[in-house]
Design a protein that fits this description.
The structure holds five protein chains of five kinds.
Chain A (H helix, E strand, L loop, with lengths): L5 H21 L3 H25 L6 H30 L14
Helix pairs in contact in A: 1-2, 2-3
Chain C lengths: L1 H5 L1 H19 L7 H17 L7 E3 L4 E3 L1 H20 L1 H7 L3 H20 L3 H20 L5 H32 L4 H11 L4 H18 L7 H8 L2 H7 L2 H18 L3 H24 L4 H21 L5 H24 L19 H4 L1 H15 L5 H15 L3 H27 L13 H19 L2 H15 L2
Antiparallel strand pairs in C: 1-2
Helix pairs in contact in C: 2-3, 2-6, 3-4, 3-6, 4-6, 4-12, 4-13, 4-16, 4-22, 6-7, 6-13, 7-8, 7-13, 8-9, 8-10, 8-11, 9-13, 10-13, 11-12, 11-15, 12-16, 13-15, 13-16, 14-15, 14-20, 15-16, 15-19, 15-20, 16-18, 16-19, 16-21, 16-22, 18-20, 18-21, 19-20, 19-21
Chain D lengths: L3 H18 L4 H25 L8 E9 L4 E7 L1 H4 L1 H20 L4 H20 L3 H10 L1 H11 L4 H29 L10 H6 L6 H18 L8 H8 L2 H26 L1 H27 L4 H21 L3 H32 L10 H4 L1 H14 L6 H15 L8 H27 L15 H19 L2 H19 L1 H9 L1
Antiparallel strand pairs in D: 1-2
Helix pairs in contact in D: 1-2, 1-5, 2-4, 2-5, 4-5, 4-12, 4-15, 4-20, 5-6, 5-7, 6-8, 7-8, 8-10, 8-11, 10-12, 10-13, 11-14, 12-14, 12-15, 12-21, 13-14, 13-19, 14-15, 14-18, 14-19, 15-17, 15-18, 15-20, 15-21, 17-19, 17-20, 18-19, 18-20
The chains are: A mainly alpha, B mainly alpha, C mainly alpha, D mainly alpha, E mainly alpha.
Chain lengths: ~100, ~180, ~475, ~500, ~625
């Protein structure tokens, strides 16, 4: 049966990656930015798995990498939300454009 | 005609994936954004299945669609925003950013297409066994480190949000 | 079993972290927690001394962990920096009610991450280590959580950090795609075949450069640095300005030199450009700063440039890598010392002293002022300090690889830097203090550790040979091929 | 005794210890500093006695491995070029400390003395180092103490002046550092590389023509700024005006010599081709410095500024003497360094003394001092005359020899000695103009009421001035013994720089 | 025993006196300084006479070395004395006149509070002058040369609290320095040419040089001479130098120092002789100066200034002599002039001393009765200056003119003749205004008194000298001095002169005497019988008179124009230093400051911007890699 070529998967992942990237550059809400970062990570995951399954010398490393990314992503989100909350307590806003006491 | 299933599924998934992702970026309601993100994760899981990596797909559903989405939803709930007009959801630099991202994305996507396919997965069937063996075999050390990472994140997160001294009370109980 | 022995230092560090957490939890609230720092120091010193007992150079965990001179060098460096960070902290933590136990534990975790980086032979371990090094730093930056500057610092650092991690990860993914493996050696081989002409490897390389450059605060990926350093609690700043940077350069060496050396010519030139831009921008902006803490932040960017120059000169071989190691070490102790000196002038509500708040410092605290002066002079690169020797060791490979222009840029930048470093000395020694100066604090522990560091700065400046030859040894594993 | 040179470097460091211990009490600090510098002075005189006149090579040679991974050695030695500069340094330091302990420095005495001892290490080491790297270390070591001395104990605009001083010096010296490392890399195959001067000279044929061209430039820039040569001189007046008396003394007396010494010791022997290539420009700048410095001096209103600008002119004679590349010029240049150190150091000393009493440095505010201060007038007069090159005093010998050398100067192309010589000689006339005028405006005329009560020189001040006075006369009346010490080494340096065969071989490659 | 070997004692004595008076003078010695100095000079005078007699007794020309002064490679200069007739003559002149002046000064300076300073510097001057005279090489001579310059500087500015002496002193030193520039250039080129600075060696090798170079060298030396000996264009310091005490004027600015230039040229006769054109320049300048200064002297009223200008003019005579190839005549005139001009100065000093320090002749008059000794001695000196036979001046000056004429320099001779007349006129005028006629200032006249013996005795001695000194040159062309100095100056090409016919000499002498007499008679008729009345003459002369009174406006030219110009230039260069050279540096500094604060603004504090700059960086890096990969930037 016909296979979807590896390139297609990677292209899709690249699209997702840059969508996330654009999100980080565009949105003001810290939480949304966090989501966009997650999208980027997922794009990477997709690429990794695709490579690991479809490369000539296919091995499971890609998948292993992805598992670690899961862990890291979880940790990141936890810490990230904690930071956002701590900040939100001092100044009830998650608008990153308002967090500019330090500049120059 | 069965041999066209995979491409069709792939196309559908891709469209959904990209569409949902774009929605996350563009949608104003954060809660629905979060849910769309979860949907994106699901599509990714689908991709994994398509690639024959069922185990990873499972993890994906558990961790992302499960844990992370929930976390983020909590985060969204704890940080309510005063309603504002649509443009204010975006930074002033949005157009410029779009240009830059496009400048990079377009060539990269085309370059991505250039990856040559190695044919069907050499070892047919599931990826559970190889994954498990390598995780607890050669990758034992990073595995341990990863666990420490989770510990560190936990401690840190607690340290950042726990309320012990009166200073915290000036911020409303009712919020948390 | 042998595997565990091989990573004994890492294990020790982890245990130390856990012990500190427990001890902190057991300690009733409101009681002094200064002794925790000594506990940490004890643990970390122990970790240093376990180093020699680990079996010498070799690969463990079925080849996914490598222990060699390179590892040993960085292990010691990270531990030393962590120890100093623990020593200078207590007073500040107590004053600003920063949770002490978490502070020390987080430092330990970050250190563990850094050590993991230098143990790594493949991208996976390296990436995990990188994250374990970085995520605690986010926490560290925000740990003074009732201070909005601290919150802002943490927020910015986290968002940008996560973003850059994603970039890096994607780069790694592509590297994997190009080479079909995650081991540096394998990547090196594959890349050598593909070459930069292959656009995919070009993209991967760019993403990796950006990701690692961000961690090391290379211009133009540097902008988180001033805000994060500025807002974070000063002891944390002292640590994060050196530890992560050192780790980042360890990673850069492992990946770029260890993994991508075949493409050297191509990324060497790009790195040279980045280095020149970085040091110049850092120095020029630092000229315009009025807050000492922020000025030091920018100066640390400039130093990134110097180190990067040595990386760019990797064609010179051992001397280049050794230069990076030596400079990172030198930079570590002198910059940490410089930031820690700010702890003497620490008034509630401010982030760090402005230049004017340092007026007459030499009269109010002669010892501290002298130490600060020594660190600044060392950062300027004037003999007989380690900073000077480090610059020499950097310039040598740069010239050796034929990049005379870069050497000249370094020299001229040193002149620029001299202006703002010595301006601090001017404020400390040549201006008289006036009324309403923030009161000085002088914990004995802080003074002692800074005195020791200052002495080391000079001692290693006079007799740098042992350290340098060690760095040379440490450089060899990367070049073995 | 064979480690006398190391001793010279160690003594001041040893002096630092008691200084730190007894630092609390300024009087103790003063005594410690005085004793230390005096011991150092004696040691340097011992070194002088151990020196064997008539030999060109390095004597009292010491060499230890210091930084093998960079081929750097702790290598010391003296020859005719440096043997006289070292005692001059120690003497001037001693006098500076002695004078400063008399009350010129009132606050932070301990720090001041400490800075001076460190400074002395740098200055003495500078003249003894035979390893380029070591030389550079000492060259820079002088920087920070002087920076503090000007900046902490200086005048109103001290911060501007001292930062200017440091930045100028660094701008030059860091490029020289690049040059030094380049020399190291070019000195041989990896493993056999070195920075030790004798070995470098032996293997200098490795330095290609345009390597020499650029590296010489790097060195020359550093030295030219230190000299200072026009147009890099503008830091000097500011630094001198703001510096405390003792600072001015060593700054003019010793630090300026680092440049000329560096040229003669390193730049010429190592880069003959570079020297030849840059020669015309350097000669031009020297003559410009002589005339320009003199002309600008004539209109100075501030006593210290005037002496500072006169230093620019005098240093012009030094460089001129060096770059005409002949025996008279070289010997004259070294003598001129020595004499300028003594005379200008003395001038700054006495300007300082005068300032301590009257708190005025503007020439217009002074006048008629000769009435009340016959002793002061005598000292100041003699040094003024020496500075304007009156035969029979030391200033003349150096300048005249340089002039003879300048007249002899015959380059393959461009204007020769008969063009430069007379021009430079004009500088001698101008010196008479501005120095005598200065002397008259300060000493002659009617005394202001305010100064009637001021006392003449105290015993301490006489003690500070007398050695310099004696040297001024001795070096003027009987310079031959000193010339005999200098001559062979200078000839060697010049021979190395002019060796025609060598230039040919380099150009051939 | 051989005195010549002790020649170094001659300068040693004054040096000792200088040191003693200088160190102990102010505290302890006080008035004793005068006798000490005089004693020292007396000692050297005695020794000098001894040496002279030995040399006269045919002692061969000898070099008395002391030690090696400077020796670098081929450039070797010793401190050594050359004893030959020329230096012996100078020794005598210098020491004897100095002695007299010292003695005279004891009286003259008695009441000055700076006495000890005076007697510190005067011996120092003698020392320097003796070094100059004794030197056996140009460089050592230069040492003395500068030394006397310094002393003259110090002594002119002796009363340094008044502004005029300061100016005069500085002017003197600086103008001398300008001359010295020439001296140095001459000296060094001499060395380059002959490889030595030693007189005898240079003169031996004179042959090897070609004339052009020699001419340049000689002109350079002559520039030095004009500075020292106040010739055009560097003469104007000498009249101002009269601000110093009269004894100083007598010793330094009449008898000794100012003749150093003459001595230098005489010394270098072999050089000058070999360099033809140079001599003509010397002669021309000399003649020009002679008449130029004489004309100015006609109308001055300050008695010392009259003498000063007359000195300038007499020095002009000497150079004229040198120019026409008669060094002996020059030395001869130098010798006689030393006596009568010193006497004239000391005399006017005595007058000034007698009428409490007034120098303006318009306030004098009729003093003959009050101070007879001064009067008579000055009459004698005046006669000598006016060249009235058989006084000293007549013989020497007449010889100069004769030689000039016989060597065919008719024009120079004519100038000299006219100058002679003028000289006679202004000296008559000076003496008459001072001593004859009605006292014009009654008050001064009443208090006028003759000077004490210690001052008058030197006057008498010098008077005797002024009468007899001339006879060393009698008979003309073959007198003692000619035989004595002959050997030194053979190179001067006296051979060219055919032994002149006695008749012609007498004729020329007669002519010059007539000129002098005419001058005197005019002077007498104008000032004794107001016929014609000087005032009327002045009015008649109108502009010409004013030009003379204002000394041809030369001082104005020098002091205003030149000095002003120089100051303007110097000021401009300082402005250049501050605003251009230093300005650039400071601009650079501020530039970086601006740059920094500009880049600061890029640090907006907005996370979005930071992220964007990261992405931009990513793009840039990609392009860079691509570029290097494609080899666009080269490798």
């Amino acid at each position: 049966m016909t296979h979807v070529p590896l390139g297609a998967f990677i292209a899709v992942s690249a699209m997702l990656f840059f969508i996330g990237c654009a999100g980080v550059l565009m949105r003001r809400n810290a939480v949304v930015i966090l989501m966009c970062v997650e999208l980027m990570l997922n794009a990477a995951n997709l690429a990794l798995v695709a490579f690991s399954r479809r490369l000539p010398a296919a091995d499971e490393r890609g998948s292993v990498f992805v598992t670690f990314v899961f862990v890291i992503a979880a940790a990141e989100v936890a810490v990230g939300l904690a930071i956002v909350l701590a900040a939100y307590r001092n100044r009830p806003s998650v608008d990153v454009d308002e967090a500019r006491a330090m500049r120059g | 005609m069965f041999d066209l299933i995979e491409p069709i599924v792939f196309v559908l998934l891709s469209v959904a994936l990209v569409g949902a992702g774009a929605a996350v970026v563009l949608l104003r309601r954060i809660t629905s954004g979060a849910l769309l993100m979860a949907f994106t994760f699901l599509c990714i899981a689908g991709m994994f299945v398509l690639l024959g990596a069922e185990t990873i797909a499972a993890f994906q559903v558990l961790i992302y669609v499960g844990a992370i989405t929930v976390l983020i939803l909590y985060g969204v709930m704890f940080t309510p925003q005063s309603p504002r007009s649509y443009p204010l959801f975006f930074q002033r630099q949005t157009p410029l950013a779009a240009v830059f991202v496009a400048l990079i994305a377009v060539p990269v996507v085309f370059i991505a297409l250039s990856f040559r396919d190695g044919g069907p997965p050499a070892s047919g069937g599931g990826d559970l066994v190889p994954l498990a063996t390598s995780l607890f075999g050669p990758f034992a050390f990073p595995f341990e480190v990863a666990s420490v990472l989770l510990l560190a994140a936990m401690i840190g997160a607690i340290a950042l949000v726990k309320r012990e001294d009166p200073l915290d009370d000036e911020f409303g109980e009712e919020r948390l | 079993m042998n595997d565990l022995v091989a990573v004994l230092p890492e294990v020790t560090v982890t245990l130390t972290a856990c012990v500190v957490i427990v001890a902190d939890a057991l300690q009733p609230r409101g009681r002094s927690r200064d002794w925790l720092s000594l506990l940490v120091v004890f643990g970390l010193v122990a970790a240093i001394f376990t180093g020699p007992f680990t079996p010498t150079a070799g690969r463990y965990f079925s080849g996914f962990v490598v222990v060699d001179t390179f590892t040993a060098f960085f292990r010691v460096l990270f531990l030393v920096l962590a120890i100093l960070a623990a020593l200078v902290a207590p007073g500040y933590l107590a004053r600003r009610r920063v949770p002490a136990g978490e502070y020390y534990a987080t430092i330990c975790f970050s250190t563990l991450g850094a050590m993991t980086i230098v143990l790594a032979t493949d991208l996976i371990t390296l990436f995990v280590g990188l994250e374990l090094m970085t995520i605690p730093i986010y926490i560290l930056a925000g740990l003074q959580r009732h201070d909005r500057y601290s919150n802002e610092a943490a927020l910015k650092y986290f968002l940008l950090g996560a973003f850059s991690s994603a970039l890096l990860l994607y780069g790694f993914a592509w590297l994997y795609g190009i080479s079909g493996t995650t081991e540096m050696a394998g990547i090196a081989a594959a890349i050598a075949k593909a070459g930069l002409a292959n656009p995919a490897s070009m993209v991967a390389l760019a993403l990796v450069t950006v990701g690692l450059g961000f961690k090391a605060a290379v211009v133009p990926f540097h902008q988180w640095t001033p805000d994060a350093y500025d807002g974070a609690p000063t002891p944390a700043t002292a640590f994060m300005s050196v530890g992560p940077k050192a780790a980042a350069f360890a990673a850069i060496l492992r990946v770029m030199v260890g993994g991508l050396d075949p493409l050297g010519v191509d990324w060497g030139n790009v790195f040279a450009l980045l280095a020149a831009v970085t040091m110049t921008a850092g120095n020029v902006i630092a000229l315009a700063q009025s807050n000492t803490k922020r000025m030091l932040a920018y100066s640390s960017i400039a130093h990134t440039g110097y180190i990067l120059a040595a990386v760019a000169a990797h064609r010179a071989g051992g001397s280049a890598v050794a230069a990076v190691l030596f400079y990172v070490f030198a930079y570590g102790i002198m910059n940490l010392g410089a930031f820690a000196c700010l702890l003497f002038v620490d008034s509630e509500g401010t982030r760090g002293p402005t230049l004017d708040e340092l007026n007459g410092f030499a009269r109010r605290a002669p010892g501290a002022a002298l130490a600060f002066a020594v660190f600044l002079i060392s950062l300027t690169g004037i003999p007989p300090t380690i900073g000077f020797i480090a610059k020499v060791f950097v310039i040598q490979p740069v010239l050796d690889s034929g990049m005379v222009w870069l050497a000249v840029v370094i020299a001229l930048n040193a002149v620029l830097a001299a202006f703002y470093y010595l301006r601090v000395v001017v404020h400390m020694y040549m201006y008289e203090t006036d009324a309403k100066m923030p009161p000085l604090v002088s914990p004995r522990l802080l003074s002692l550790s800074l005195g020791a560091t200052a002495l080391a700065t000079i001692a290693l400046g006079v007799l740098p040979n042992s350290l340098y030859s060690w760095a040379l040894q440490a450089a060899t594993p990367l070049l073995a091929r | 005794m064979e480690h006398i040179l190391t001793l010279l470097i160690v003594i001041p460091l040893v002096g630092l210890l008691p200084l730190v211990v007894f630092g609390r009490d300024p009087r103790a600090a003063k005594q410690v500093a005085i004793i230390t510098t005096f011991v150092e002075l004696v040691a340097s005189l011992v070194m002088l006695t151990l020196f064997r006149t008539g030999e060109a090579g390095f004597q009292l040679h010491e060499s230890l491995s210091w930084l093998p991974s960079l081929g750097v050695r702790y290598e010391l030695g003296v020859d005719g070029i440096s043997v006289l500069l070292v005692p001059m340094t120690t003497l001037l330091t001693f006098i500076s400390v002695l004078y400063s302990s008399g009350g010129a420095i009132k606050e932070r005495v301990t720090e001041f003395m400490a800075a001076f001892l460190v400074l002395e290490v740098g200055m003495v080491g500078l003249f003894l180092a035979l390893d380029l790297f070591l030389f550079y270390v000492f060259f820079e070591l002088m920087l920070i103490p002087m920076y503090l001395i000007i900046g902490v104990w200086g005048g109103p605009r001290r911060v501007y002046a001292t930062l200017k001083f440091v930045l100028f010096t660094l701008a030059g010296s860091l490029l020289m550092l690049v040059g030094i490392i380049a020399v190291y890399l070019a000195s041989g195959e990896p493993g056999s590389r070195t920075l030790s001067l004798p070995e470098l000279i032996a293997g200098r044929a490795r330095f290609s023509a345009d390597f020499q061209f650029w590296v010489f430039l790097a060195f020359a820039l550093a030295f030219a700024i230190k000299m200072p040569m026009v147009p890099f001189h503008t830091w000097l007046p500011d630094a001198h005006v703001e510096a405390p008396t003792a600072g001015s003394i060593v700054l003019a007396g010793v630090l300026l010599k680092a440049g000329g010494y560096g040229f003669l010791r390193f730049a010429l022997p190592l880069f003959p081709f570079g020297t030849q290539a840059w020669l015309p420009l350097l000669i031009l700048l020297s003559v410009v410095a002589i005339l320009y410095g003199a002309i600008v001096s004539t209109v100075q209103k501030d006593l210290k500024k005037l002496v500072a600008y006169s230093s620019v002119a005098h240093m012009g004679f030094v460089t001129l003497g060096i770059f005409v590349l002949n025996a008279q010029g070289g010997a004259g240049a070294v003598l001129q360094m020595l004499n300028h150190g003594i005379v200008t150091g003395a001038l700054f000393l006495f300007v300082g003394i005068q300032y301590e009493k009257t708190h005025r440095r503007l020439i217009a505010d002074l006048g008629g001092l000769a009435n009340r201060w016959p002793l002061y007038t005598t000292f100041f007069g003699v040094f003024t005359l020496a500075s304007l090159g009156l035969p029979g005093l030391n200033g003349f010998v150096g300048e005249f020899l340089v002039l003879v050398g300048a007249f002899k100067f015959s380059p393959p192309t461009g204007p020769g000695g008969l063009f430069w010589g007379p021009l430079a000689a004009i500088g001698v006339i101008l010196a008479a103009v501005y120095l005598l005028w200065m002397f008259q405006r300060v000493m002659y005329g009617t005394l202001r009421e305010a100064y009637r009560a001021l006392p003449d020189l105290s015993r301490l001040e006489v003690a500070c001035g007398l050695p310099l006075l004696i040297l001024t006369v001795v070096l003027g009346v009987a310079p031959q013994p000193f010339i005999a010490m200098i001559q062979p080494s200078v000839d060697r340096a010049i021979a190395l720089a002019t060796d025609p065969l060598f230039t040919v071989t380099v150009l051939a490659r | 025993m051989n005195l010549v070997d002790l020649v170094w004692l001659i300068p040693a004595f004054p040096l000792a006196a200088f040191l003693v008076n200088g160190i102990f003078g102010r505290r302890w010695l006080g008035k004793a300084t005068g006798p000490i100095a005089s004693a020292a000079v007396a000692a050297s005078a005695v020794l000098a006479l001894g040496v002279f007699s030995q040399v006269a007794g045919g002692h061969a020309q000898t070099v008395v070395p002391l030690y090696e002064w400077i020796g670098v490679a081929d450039f070797r200069v010793d401190v050594a004395a050359l004893v030959d007739p020329l230096s012996a003559t100078m020794l005598v002149v210098v020491t004897v006149v100095s002695l007299l002046v010292h003695v005279y000064s004891i009286g003259y300076m008695a009441h000055d509070h700076g006495l000890h300073r005076f007697f510190t510097w005067l011996p120092l001057f003698v020392f320097a002058m003796l070094v100059l005279v004794l030197a056996d090489n140009y460089l050592l001579m230069f040492v003395g040369w500068e030394g006397v310059g310094l002393c003259s500087y110090l002594l002119i500015g002796f009363w340094f609290e008044r502004p005029e002496p300061q100016g005069a002193a500085k002017k003197a030193f600086v103008m001398n320095r300008i001359g010295d520039w020439g001296f140095m250039i001459g000296m060094i080129t001499t060395f380059l040419l002959f490889g030595t600075l030693n007189f005898t060696e240079v003169f031996e090798r004179v042959g090897i040089a070609q004339q052009g170079v020699l001419t340049l060298i000689c002109l350079a030396f002559f520039l030095g001479a004009t500075g020292k000996s106040a010739q055009l264009p560097l003469y104007s310091w000498l009249p101002d130098a009269m601000e110093g005490p009269s004894p100083v004027s007598a010793l330094i600015h009449a008898a000794t120092m100012v003749t150093a230039g003459v001595y230098l040229v005489a010394r270098s006769t072999p050089l000058f002789a070999a360099a033809g054109p140079a001599l003509q320049v010397v002669g021309a300048v000399g003649a020009l100066t002679a008449i130029f200064a004489a004309t100015i002297a006609l109308v001055q009223f300050d008695i010392k200034r009259v003498m000063a200008y007359s000195t300038v003019s007499q020095l002009g005579y000497m150079f004229l002599a040198l120019g026409v190839g008669a060094p002996i005549a020059a030395m001869f005139h130098l010798f006689t002039h030393a006596f009568f001009k010193a006497l004239l100065f000391l005399g006017s000093g005595s007058v000034i001393h007698g009428i409490d320090d007034v120098q303006d002749m318009r306030r004098m008059g009729g003093l003959r009765s009050k101070m007879p000794i001064t009067y008579w001695t000055m009459v004698i000196a005046g006669g000598a200056l006016a060249a009235i036979p058989p006084l000293a001046g007549f013989w020497s000056k007449d010889e100069i003119l004769a030689t000039a004429f016989l060597n065919g320099h008719t024009l120079l001779w004519l100038v000299g003749l006219v100058t002679g007349a003028l000289t006679a006129f202004y000296v008559t005028r000076a003496i008459w205004l001072t001593f004859h006629g009605e006292p014009r200032d009654r008050h001064l006249f009443d208090h006028a008194h003759e000077s004490p013996r210690i001052m008058t005795i030197p006057l008498l001695v010098l008077a005797v000298g002024s009468v007899l000194a001339g006879f060393v040159g009698v008979p003309p062309e073959s007198g003692f001095i000619h035989r004595f100095l002959g050997p030194v100056t053979e190179a001067a090409g006296r051979a060219t002169e055919q032994a002149p016919a006695v008749t012609s000499i007498i004729a020329l002498a007669a002519l010059s005497v007539v000129a002098s007499v005419v001058g005197i008679l005019i002077g007498l008729s104008m000032y004794a019988r107001h016929h014609p009345d000087p005032a009327a003459v002045a009015r008649a002369a109108g502009p010409y008179y004013r030009v003379l009174v204002n000394k041809y406006y030369v001082d104005e030219l020098y002091d205003r124009r030149f000095v002003g110009l120089a100051n303007a230039f110097a000021g401009a260069s300082w402005a250049f230093d501050i605003h251009i050279i230093d300005g650039i540096v400071n601009r650079l500094g501020s530039l970086f400051g601006i740059l920094g604060s500009g880049l600061r603004r890029a640090q907006t504090g907005l996370v979005g911007n930071y992220a964007l700059s990261i992405v931009a960086g990513l793009l840039a890096v990609m392009i860079a890699y691509g570029g290097y990969a494609a080899g666009v930037f080269g490798r």
